[in-house]
Amino acid sequence: MRxxxxxxxxxxxxxxTGRAAAAGESPRPGLxxxxxxxxxxxxxxxxxxxxxxxxxxxxxxxxxxxxEWVEPFRRGMGERWPEIERLLARVTLxxxxxxxxxxxxxxxxxxxxxxxxVYASLIGDxxxxxxxxxxxxxxxxxxxxxxxxxxxxxxxxxRKGCSNVAVWGQAARDGETYHFHNFDWSKDFGLQNRxxxxxxxxxxxxxxxxxxxxGTVYTCSGxxxxxxxxxxxxxxxxxxxxxxxxxxLVIKKVLARATRLRDxxxxxxxxxxxxxxxxVIASGREGAACAVETNSRQVAFFFPGDGREQxxxxxxxxxxxxxxxxxxxxxxxxxxxxxxxxxxxxPGPESPVGSRTHQHYVGMMEFVRRNFGRIDAQIMxxxxxxxxxxxxxxxxxxxxxxxxxxxxxxxxxxxDACRRKYxxxxxxxxxxxxxxxxxxxxxxxGNGDEEY
Length: 452
Description:
Layout: H1 2-14, E1 30-34, E2 37-44, H2 46-56, H3 58-68, H4 70-77, H5 81-94, H6 97-110, H7 114-122, H8 124-130, H9 133-145, E3 163-167, E4 178-184, E5 196-202, E6 208-212, E7 221-224, E8 228-234, H10 247-257, H11 261-270, E9 277-283, E10 288-294, E11 299-302, E12 321-324, H12 331-334, H13 356-371, H14 377-387, E13 393-400, E14 405-410, E15 423-425, H15 427-430
Parallel strand pairs: 2-5
Antiparallel strand pairs: 1-2, 3-4, 3-12, 4-13, 5-6, 6-7, 7-8, 8-9, 9-10, 10-11, 13-14, 14-15
Helix pairs in contact: 1-2, 2-6, 4-9, 6-7, 10-11, 13-14
């Protein structure tokens, strides 16, 4: 039975042509490399798409799970691993079924235990909470046992500085909706060398594209065929509960289901959450964007025109703009942060003014104000480059939501993404006929007239 299944997977992968779709066509399933960045289009049920991805990246996935990610984490946790495994078993039951089905397909194609493939997608938030040192420790143990040298490390201190900016309407030269997201994290685990852009075309569902890695369904950035893009910024706070759906799977759930900002925000609010995360979500169809601030217990929405962001005296006002670094603006959520001088034991939220994270936010907002009214894709790339945390910038994505385009740069080795070329992925390449241009509806939106 296993032989028949593997033969089916191989034949399924063999029909992939890798040829780019012509204008107006649906993109053909398969793998191609565009200017150094891998791009895969998969179709079918979640399990079928997982099998296709597993067949294409079988050796890479096996090495990733057994040598670089899951097994080192298991070894690094030592005596605490049984506790973590019980947690992972509970979290698996909370995750979207389509994500678990995709993991099953990957496991089948790669001849790996289903459990380990699922864990590869679930442990990211645990690593964030426990500290990357757990994986490093595990890798060192494995290298010593094998008589190998310790894996090379960058030697850089663990710092994060992800950034999110969305503009639309009057802020943009052409009235389009733009959104950039920088994912800044450690280069010590080689994630920067394993990037793949995956365009999912689920049977009967909404097509969506993620910036991700083979062997995991976790993602930090993406856009769907309805023109919804999502980016994240993780931060530190007292309300963090690992008994929830990992942030990367929350983003994937939003991309697979949301067609409006309100849909996206409600999906995040309704999902059991783990670590504190700020999301920026942009919509080409609505010509607007919003922010969603979260921790494991609380959520706050910031929709265009509601004025909530300006209630914080450390916010920078700019029309048709949403921007997030680490700092929360809702007083209840800011009060729970330990980021940028937050102290939960003291009454009331502390101002982040003067902190590195607040300076990061102010720098991004000053970029928007300097370029207000003339922002286009190239200016957004310039802004993303300026905002990236140097030494940690793993990928930098610039979305044009109204045109369903993505410009993406990925790091390689120790070279930051922001220092490399931004490669354009078009609507036809990612979505094709499955997603007609969404446009901006002829509106300069974001003035508070919409109902959210």
